[in-house]
Amino acid sequence: MPGRSSKPAPLPMRDGVAPSYLWLPEGQWPDMLAFLVERYPQIGAAQWRERMARGEVVNGDGAVLGPGSAYRRGMRIFYYRELARETPIPFHEEILFQDEHLVVVDKPHFLPMTPGGRFVQETLLTRLKRKLDCADLTPIHRLDRETAGVVIFSRQIASRGAYQTLFQRREVRKTYEALAPVLEGRDFPFTYRSRMVDGDKFFLMREEAGEPNSETIIDVIERRGGVNLYRLQPHTGRKHQLRVHLASLGIPIVNDAFYPVALPCKEDDMSQPLQLLARAIDFTDPLTGEPRHFESRRSL
Question: What is the pTM of this model?
């Protein structure tokens, strides 16, 4: 399937998007066009011919491939991923900080982090690559499309590992805020732990009995009528951890379309953002030893 290569690609970044690549699998096809049409039927022969005529399908050495080029198992081909129609995201990111190593961004709700599915241009990574003209820009950690707030990108390969290690060793303190129903019968703050595993649907997580592998400190900042503004500090980074934990406590985050029950896809409806915000990130810079604190300017 398509991926990203650590070696320089024979096609340049275009409009903030790096080329995708594919290792050709074992099989028999009369030519390259026949394979591509079968592999990606949603694109069609005419579109592949146009891309090839523009020189936008090449092999690993940069040689342009045409419709009649021979199919060779094990060859790597490069191409640009394109969408016929992409929903504009009418919300904008804000760069909070940047230096030679990092770019810290305040992400809006609904903006995906990286290209995938229905979005290529309308993603945070692509927008930043266009804005900063930085092909090596890579997120060090992720936020869900539905979540807003602080996220950090690495802008150079040489120092990327040092910052990634901070997250792997849990040496980064992340603070979130969420609006959710009032939880009665608990003394705050308290720590919630559970064992999280993949759910029945590929995009969901669930809890099961067993040794906990997820942990969140939960506190109340203020009461707002029938809901609380909670402060959440995850000590682990499981997918959808905060959403699962609050739903399991019986206080699902306001406007959560996944938990406790997955609702029908809202597609392009952006009227009810998930009330979850990555408020702040704190860590000791591995290169300078200085404390770092970055905080979102958004509010719930």
Answer: 0.81
